[in-house]
UniProtKB/TrEMBL annotation:
<dbReference type="InterPro" id="IPR051796">
    <property type="entry name" value="ISF_SsuE-like"/>
</dbReference>
<dbReference type="Pfam" id="PF03358">
    <property type="entry name" value="FMN_red"/>
</dbReference>
<dbReference type="InterPro" id="IPR029039">
    <property type="entry name" value="Flavoprotein-like_sf"/>
</dbReference>
<keyword id="KW-0288">FMN</keyword>
<protein>
    <submittedName>
        <fullName>Multimeric flavodoxin WrbA</fullName>
    </submittedName>
</protein>
<keyword id="KW-0285">Flavoprotein</keyword>
<dbReference type="InterPro" id="IPR005025">
    <property type="entry name" value="FMN_Rdtase-like_dom"/>
</dbReference>
<dbReference type="GO" id="GO:0016491">
    <property type="term" value="F:oxidoreductase activity"/>
</dbReference>
<feature type="domain" description="NADPH-dependent FMN reductase-like">
    <location>
        <begin position="1"/>
        <end position="148"/>
    </location>
</feature>
């Protein structure tokens, strides 16, 4: 069992990294391997709706997105962490997620997702909602904890003073580990839920 973790901060020793490291320690205790990829500093352009991926099975821009697609397909869970910019996620990360989720056609059903937002003060809950939409649109159960998944801190390392936030990271990681293990057992005993042929209705006639 393994989890892919995306760090959407442009800084390698950020409070976002601190939050993900706290989760990684719990995953290791639970026997789940982790791969952390820092992507917030990369030059990642957004989706242009060319639909090339519908024909080739991969994004037309052959960059980190296509590389991560292979790791995402193999993973049992995906954790996405980001700093808050103007009440939302780092736009670089959003561009990556738009393309990653849209261009990949493998079944994401029952992969477990968790979104983590980090801020000086406000915007964490809006960003948390923003990240969860990617999981909800693709049949991924969302790991939750005892509060919204956020950590507070502005200066480097300041997040280490947010004891409640760090506890939330640990709780989410434990709950995520439990879901991953339970889904693995469920697949073996019952298989995945029945898949219906997709119905697409356009509202403009």
């Amino acid at each position: 069992m393994n989890v892919l973790m995306l760090n959407g901060s442009p800084r390698s020793h950020s409070n976002t990294a601190l939050a993900l490291d706290e989760m990684e320690r719990v995953f290791q205790e639970e026997g789940i391997s982790c791969t952390i990829r820092q992507v917030g500093q990369m030059d990642i352009r957004g989706c242009i709706a060319c639909d090339t991926c519908g024909k080739t099975g991969k994004c037309t821009f052959d960059d980190i997105v296509n590389e991560l697609a292979k790791e995402f397909e193999k993973a049992d869970g995906l954790v996405v962490g980001t700093p808050v910019y103007f009440g939302s996620a780092n736009p670089t990360l959003v561009a990556l997620l738009d393309r990653l989720f849209y261009s990949t056609h493998f079944d994401k059903t029952m992969k477990v997702g968790a979104g983590i937002s980090v801020a000086r003060r406000g915007g964490t809950s809006a960003t948390y909602d923003e990240l969860n939409k990617f999981f909800a649109l693709t049949g991924m159960p969302i790991a939750t904890g005892q509060y919204w998944n956020g950590l507070h801190g502005r200066a480097q390392g300041e997040g280490s003073q947010d004891e409640e936030g760090l506890q939330q990271m640990r709780v989410v990681a434990r709950n995520m580990a439990f879901l991953i293990k339970s889904i693995k057992l469920g697949k073996e005993a019952f298989g995945l839920p029945k898949v219906e042929e997709r119905v697409r209705t356009n509202f403009v006639r």
